Structures
1.
Amino acid sequence: QGLKPIVSTESPALIFGTTTKLASDLPATDSFLGKNKVPDLQKLFQQADGLPVHLKRGVPDKLLYRTTMALTIGGTIYCLVALYMASQPRNQ
């Protein structure tokens, strides 16, 4: 009898009537209209000034770092207090 293909080799019909655009069909000028900031940021982050990367951009980074540390420490203290309260027997 021989082997016969179970699945049809023909491509299925389109489900949606729209076709997709290829990247080569898009105009090059419309894809990105801003300035490339990567080289400037690379220069900033690769400076040998002794600062860690997460503090290189100045005051906003310091504010975010300190806020994160305060929330972390506050959350840890809150969890320890809640654990202590849960471990105490209730007075009746």
2.
Amino acid sequence: MLRVLLLILSVVAIAHAELCKPDAQNAFKVRLSIKTALGDNAYAWDANEEYLFKAMVAFAMRRYSSKSTTQISNVLLCNVTDRVSFWFVVTDSSKNVTTVPGSEVEAAIRMNRNRINSAFLLSDKTLQFLKITSTLSPPVEPSTPVWLIVFGVVLCLIVAGIVFLVVAGIRQRKKKNKESTERENLEEKGEVTITVENGIPCEVLDLKAGHINGVFAADDERFTPL
């Protein structure tokens, strides 16, 4: 019985080795730049990290297809290098001797790329799936709707315009009151007052004192009686 079990395990191991190898059908190469991304805080790539990677790929496959029964054991890694690069395949959970089509694996990875990156504290540039194109991160939506921002700007402009008109009207009224007060003061002192006609200041004759025409005054001085 033990020999049969060992034989089965060896057959499965050989089958898995044939499924997961460089450039195998439905296999993907992964390259990680942990040191570049994290510097002094870089972590070592070990069996625990490999387990986490398998778990994240299995999670992506299950999330991509709600009917999927992919397990961690269905994710196979091979050709792991010290510079942290390796190949992986996802086997069919029902047969376990064939791989899931690469198109499905690619779609699942692309759909959950941000979750996978976050698990390893990396980005699309430092966690590369060489046959899978990078995905753009979802656009950041502002907490305040755009229409509300536009409405606020327009409202501020309207309020600023109203305030400007009110202040300009007050200043104009003060200016008119000041001119009126000065004119009244001049009239009380009996001095020549200034009136404004059509926006042009005009002198008003003082009827009591009269007004001497300089031309005639000069003529009187020239023709002095004998």
3.
Amino acid sequence: AMMEESKLTLFQRRFLMDCVKRGDTLPLQCHPTSSKEPASPAPAFSPPVCQRSRLPAKPHLRPAELCRAGDAYTREKFRPQARRDLEKEKERLQNILATGKEVVEPEVKRMPVRRKEEEIPEPDRFEELVNEIQERKEFLAEMKALGQDKEYRNIILTEISQKMHEMEILDKKRSEAIRETMTKDFPVGNKPDPCE
């Protein structure tokens, strides 16, 4: 009806119907007599023309062997999920039927149960120092075997001397502590015990 109102020629109507059937956009100008469009001067900036991707006339179907070869026909294994507590569900339903409302129980924060952990004796610092010195000696021996002991020798010997100094301090503290306990238990000197 619009074509008749706009007084288009038969050629122009046919041209527009072909565009509609192909799914193309309608032209801005339709020339009345020929299929050739006159060459119009190209604008300075022309936006890129988007072309629709055409679908193939024949659909591409995969053969049955390829379909069966894939994992489309394998069923997923059943993985059970966490079950709900049926007793709680029964109680909730009883409360709803009895009172007409759902009773919301306040969440009780669970305090972590403190188990009696096995008393792990703290490693003796003196023994740790001995192990650290031994590790440094082994490292220095490995570097010597690789021929790189000159780079690390001074550093390692300094660390070993620091560890030894710390061991001496610990040894003095230990001996003083032992001496104090010994003097409390046993009187020092040749004074006779008044209880005897």
